[in-house]
Amino acid sequence: MRLRSLQIILWIAATAAVVAFSAMRWWPATDDSAAAASAFNPAFALADSQGSIRTAAEFRGKFLLVFFGFTSCPDVCPTTLAEVAQVMDDLGSDAESVQPIFISIDPERDRRLGLADYTKAFHPMILGLAGSEAETQSAAASFKIFYEREADTSSPNGYTMAHSPGLYLIGPDGAWLRQFTYGTPAADILSDLQSRF
Amino acid sequence: MKHFLLAAALILSAPAVMACETVTIGDLTIEHAWSKATIGAGRPGVFYVEITNAGSVDDALIGIATPAAAMPMLHETVVKDGIASMPHAMSIPIPAGQNVQLSPGGYHGMLMGLTTALKEGDSFPITLSFEKAGEVTVNVDVLSLRAEGPDCADAGQ
User: Fold this and answer.
1) Residues 16-35 of A with CB under 8 A from B
2) Under an 8 A CB cutoff, do B77 and A156 touch?
3) Do B71 and A155 form a contact (C-beta atoms < 8 A)?
4) Between B156 and A121, whose confidence is greater?
5) pLDDT(B11) > 60
6) Taking CA atoms, what residue in A is nearest to B89?
7) Assigned domain for B150 exists
8) A122/B145 CB distance under 8 A
9) CATH classification of the domain holding B136
């Protein structure tokens, strides 16, 4: 009889533990995904090379491949844009479901140097955007990326830009999906995209 | 003068296999010198190369000079804590017995103040200054904007 009470107590304890464990697992997970969905809906409102304001909302229904950079960047930016261009070529007819976007973090100088000439030299589908300083900062903040102007006498005009070099994928519903870190081969980006169509 | 013009003509008409040529100075072997086409002359060009030190003494690349750009400098792309920056490299170590690549995402020459836009198929000379081996001039092939490296039979890309 003593053994039976012990069994009952143990069963109650085990059930309570399972309930508590599930609650701990379940609630934070729900919180996280809800927070990710609401906090990570990157937005931007930036001028294209024609001066028209383009927003994230107008591209709903398409995947966005977004890269922040500057056109006086000789190494990192051309490497990533060349990869994006390769991905767009390799997508074939699926390319129309993907909009690649280059957001200038050095907008004043890039507008002067010519943004469209630059993006088109890599791929005609890449859309170059260069807003005001404030608009650029707000776009970067919504993508949770960092950039800063660094004084450098050994660079053109005496400064260069330090920035997050990742490539960001936004879904057709506008939600942030993932980052491709700098140096991810074009073939890996392509197969990730193809798995989502 | 005649020789100079002939030399200049040869350089300008050089075929696209130049990046695959190998130049040696002392114990150093320099190969796969290439650059990428630029959009206009207002943005800097880039210079990549591969250097092998077959000797037993460490050396270092301390400078580059070229008629193609007013201000060529050595830089390094550094990605730290998710941020890419491009500090000026005072010198690039070429340790004894090692192979060092100036390649996309790492060390590179930054060619500022381009004399003219670099076009795919062009080539230009660049003089590398080494701390110990001295100076040597190599021809740099301008590849497409989307190139990842020269297409040489022996290229270890």
Assistant:
1) none
2) no
3) no
4) A121
5) no
6) A154
7) no
8) yes
9) 2.60.40.1890
